[in-house]
Amino acid sequence: MPSLLPSRYYPEPHDPHGLDPQPPVRPSGPIGILVVNLGTPDEPSAPAIRRYLAQFLSDPRVIEIPQWIWRIILHGIILRTRPRTLVPRYRGIWLEQGSPLVVYSQAQATGLEKALQMEGADVRVMLAMRYGNPSIEAGIDALRKKGCERILTVPLYPQYAASTTATVVDAVTAYTARLRNQPELRFIKRYQDDPGYIQALVSKLTAFWNVHGKPERLLLSFHGLPQRTILQGDPYHRDCMDTVRAIKAHLPQEDAERVYVSFQSRFGAEKWLQPYTEPTLKAWAQEGIKHIDVMCPGFLADCLETLEEIQEECREAFLHAGGETFRYIPCLNDDAQWVEALSQIVRRHLSGWSEKA
């Protein structure tokens, strides 16, 4: 049967402008690892915060109401007023090197690459933010330029939720769907009760207590979600409870009995996961509980929700209600034990891609 394509699509072997009939062997190339966290404004200014919020709050997985209604609220009200009110809050947590979320997430990504390469794995690690910069698109492009034909995406969310982990999968697959030469993709879904992750948390907690003494109660505060999302099948609440159970199982019984759980960052008027963090702290103070610690296991890097909402707003609420000692235990951040645990999680997911996994 004659070809339906012009002969120019089938160049002769000696055609200097044609395709090479014997191309060189293609090297396997390094494995790319895309570490992704939520995101942050580029700087603590109203325009930068507005750009960030516009992208973040336009994601239909984050705000699950009819989009035509939400766009009116978002562009007509929130983006006109909210950025200015957030400027002093972001300025209050900003580090000399930039946003704490980016600084600590980058430390984890850098540490991960070093740990894997020290064991002989041929990997390249790039940090990306789901919203803001560095973008997921830029991260994927950078890995491809380094020769990575295989990319493992590692969301820095131990507990899975559609509004966090799933949005990362959405963004990665949407971008690669536009590529002619797509990389092979893998994703880590969750590691909410991974032994290394749990042990890193418990070690940080016990080290803090060894220096500062133990409180009457320890509150583990997770980011909240609308309760309806759980009723619709989101496993986030169960993942959080898995983390709490694992932490308590690694503590002596008398310390496990100090542990309570709550959910923070409620937004809007509908019912969210309960108990709520700030009302819980106020109620404790009114009951006569004077000395408490708060830890946020779902956040792997400190950010506005931990440094400002918990360390400032919740502290003020607890002390104003009659409490005496409020201590916030920082996130894992650049903790070496956590970086090693993360490298172990990644190694398992590289099985079959890397003989060093």
Automatic annotation (TrEMBL):
Gene name, Swiss-Prot/TrEMBL: hemH
Cited Gene3D superfamilies: 3.40.50.1400
Record's keyword terms, sorted: Cytoplasm, Heme biosynthesis, Iron, Lyase, Metal-binding, Porphyrin biosynthesis
Subcellular localization, as worded in the UniProt entry: Cytoplasm
InterPro entries given in the database record: Ferrochelatase, Ferrochelatase_AS, Ferrochelatase_C, Ferrochelatase_N
The protein's role, per its UniProt record: Catalyzes the ferrous insertion into protoporphyrin IX.
Pathway annotation: Porphyrin-containing compound metabolism; protoheme biosynthesis; protoheme from protoporphyrin-IX: step 1/1
Residue numbers binding Fe(2+): 223, 305
PANTHER family linked: FERROCHELATASE (PTHR11108), FERROCHELATASE, MITOCHONDRIAL (PTHR11108:SF1)
Enzymatic reactions: Fe-coproporphyrin III + 2 H(+) = coproporphyrin III + Fe(2+); heme b + 2 H(+) = protoporphyrin IX + Fe(2+)
UniProt keyword Ligase present: no
Similarity field: Belongs to the ferrochelatase family.
Protein name stated in the entry: Ferrochelatase
NCBIfam families given in the database record: hemH
Entry keyword Iron-sulfur: no
Superkingdom of the source species: Bacteria
Known EC number: 4.98.1.1
